């Protein structure tokens, strides 16, 4: 399991409309190995423990269960993006109809793209 412990300073906190908080940290200059470890962790979910200098850290405070941020699944994100496209298409008059029909057509286009291998594979 990959993990990393670094000295860091907590920068200004940004509050969001959905009541979540965006945190930003700044570290000292990192070694190439530390940088690679951070890059490998990008986008993952996990627990964050921050303690100012001289604070006591009790490792028993670290939860043992997996964290879940209740973020949207990839399919939910795709449906939301298709809905935004639908709203734009109805507003500019390039599409008239219900979202469910628009959604089905867009999903078929995506499926067809994979069938024809027109979409870049990783």
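Q: What amino acid sequence fits the structure above?
A:
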């Amino acid at each position: 399991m990959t993990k990393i412990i670094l000295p860091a300073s907590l920068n200004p906190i940004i509050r969001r409309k959905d009541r979540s908080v965006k945190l930003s940290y700044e570290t000292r200059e990192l070694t190439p190995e530390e940088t690679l470890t951070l890059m490998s962790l990008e986008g993952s979910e996990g627990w964050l423990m921050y303690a100012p200098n001289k604070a006591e850290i009790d490792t028993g405070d670290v939860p043992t269960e997996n964290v879940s941020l209740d973020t949207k699944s990839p399919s939910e994100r795709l449906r939301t993006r298709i809905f935004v496209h639908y709203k734009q298409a109805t507003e500019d008059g390039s599409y008239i109809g219900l979202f469910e029909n628009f959604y089905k057509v867009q999903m078929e286009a995506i499926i067809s793209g994979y069938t024809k291998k027109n979409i870049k594979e990783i």
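Q: And what stands out in the fold?
A: The radius of gyration is 22 Å.
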